[in-house]
Batch of 3 targets.
Target 1
Amino acid sequence: MGTTHFPQAVAALERTMRYVEDFPEPGVLFQDLTPALADARAFHEIVAALAQAAGELGAELIGGLDARGFLLGSAVAYELGLGVVAIRKKGKLPPPVVSEEYSLEYGTSCLEIPAEGLDIAGRRVVLIDDVLATGGTLAAAASLLRRVGARVAGHAVVLEVPGLGGRERLGESPLVIIHP
């Protein structure tokens, strides 16, 4: 699917996004979505674009990734009248949990969902997050959901950090990026 054109969301992002040079390390231009999320009009346009993408991907359930994916995923689910699965960082949920460890540039991390109380087997889940960088977190979330029987219908993100291999790490799953 790739990048889709969402002119209102792109304009809202360009109007509100903050750029920070050399963060988190020298040579990196950090694209801060915090001002966009705090601006009611921009937030609405971003959520509308993500909801359109999730709808086109055939979402039956939204998966929001810790932490900004929670904000966006919850709003998208609400907009579409769907439920949302909060995919948490390790140690935030009481046991029993289903876990998925994955590699980061600087070590490993882990995502979890409850092992009980979720009826997601066979359901089409669209994963929502703010930024696609290396793709490790989204790939781990997709693997975690597949292990419990869900069908990952695709991924929708607001921004992509190019050149880090994120798209490749997601394999053949459809990907929608709001801001090219």
Target 2
Amino acid sequence: MERMTLNRFERPKPLAVSNGKGLVAGTTEPFAVHSGMDALRKGGTAMDACLATALAEITLATGSYVSYAGVTQILYYEKSSTRVFSINGGWNTPLHGDPSQIPKVHTTGNNGASVLVPGFIAGVVDAAQKFAKFPLKTLFEPALFFAENGFKMSAGLANSIKLYYNNITLLRTAQGRSIFTNPETGKPYAYQELFKQPELTVFIKNVSTSGKDYFYNGTWADEITKHAQISDPVGEAIQHII
């Protein structure tokens, strides 16, 4: 496969593909671009391609620089109505929280007030319901495949894991140690090693079937509030933000 050098690491081409009727572009993960093109080939809309690409890219990036607990901003042109829609899935403050308590700069420690509500899942679910042809479960299929079956670790991700494999970052929590340590070697995942994400597999299956309810009002909401170590009523507010 033809290769290119990007940010000092080799990545397979291409990051943009056109089938003559539409074009899909991604940031760093060609397999995610392929997921978007597959959605178009099967009759999906531009939104189907957009969401399938974004959802797969997060799994392939191991949630590092993009995350299901992040944000999304979608600008969508609907040809049938010639209208342009904007979907803002940005950060939000807890429903009953006090915005004045949010630190103006990055702080360390367990400061619950610094934890904002991520809007990515809300934005994706709303975009899929309004503009996509396929159901959310179908759009998550490529992401689920790579989480469940794994993918070979890229040079860039392997170097990042090695760089942050310490007690301050990845090894700070039991989850970090479990996810980024290869059980076969007892060492951080290295280049070309198969990387699977069983916990993420469970997460994707739940979100793809239950949507926003699981993320903002269910098990995941309980987990994030517990790990953020924030007390009521802020914890309850995050769980009922949507």
Target 3
Amino acid sequence: MTQKQVERQSLIVSTIGNFFIGLAGLIIYIVTDLNALLLDGVFSLIAFISTLAAVFISGNSHRKTETFPNGMYFLEPLYGILKSIATLMLLIITLLETSAAAYAFFIHGEGHVIETNLVLPYTISMVILCFGLGFYNRQKNRQINHLSTIIAAESKGNFIDGLISAGVGISILLLKIIPIESALGFLHYTADFFITLILVLFSYKEPLTILTDSFKEFTQSPTRNRQIVPVIHDVFQTHFNKYYHDLDIFIYKQGTHISVRVHILDPANLDLISESVNLKSLILEDLQNSFEFVTVEFAF
């Protein structure tokens, strides 16, 4: 199975899973009016919509056109950028909304008791589904040497979704054992805010990391990916042997595409230049054993 086929298979499973998870979250939110569940449900629906886009991107990013003769691989990190921004905005908006509700209770004494009856079985189911999807996508990305920016974004998104569901479930469980007449009774009115605040604090790092990594890929910053860089250097060291240290190797990753640009440090070294010309096809053939979409360029 090719790298693109693995990626597409992963995205189709994610699309189906995210649709049912998001739909369930919105239904329970409508019944309970718990904003943390709105965060949970909308997060999954964003994931569902984005995976539909991801399926298209995955199937078309490698295609070459007159406008993009080297392919449209930039769409893959662009997807990661847009999805991470949408996730961060969702976290901020939900936190602001629950903060307003908590302010109304503490300052004006306005609020209503949180409905908890349906939440616990829902969150248990969602944790199982979300973490299951997360591990599935992680395994699929490992199968293709962690090359897919799209699957990496999906996997981290699944784990965030599962974390949100787990946080809501634990908090609701605590509410069931805290009497409303006790000193902590205010949580029956404001737990939504505290749950959301904790979830945001634990969740914001993942989309921020995806945003940073995707931006670096989009701008074609040299990659430091530990699953990619050592493999490529080993291939060059094997072929060039004593000349290896006379090469300056730059490795770029944009989605599933790997671009290797090699600069010869001593342009007057005619033997090395001749060796580079002769070895280029062999090096490319070896690299294609690990990377489906890879190009090699020498600069003399």
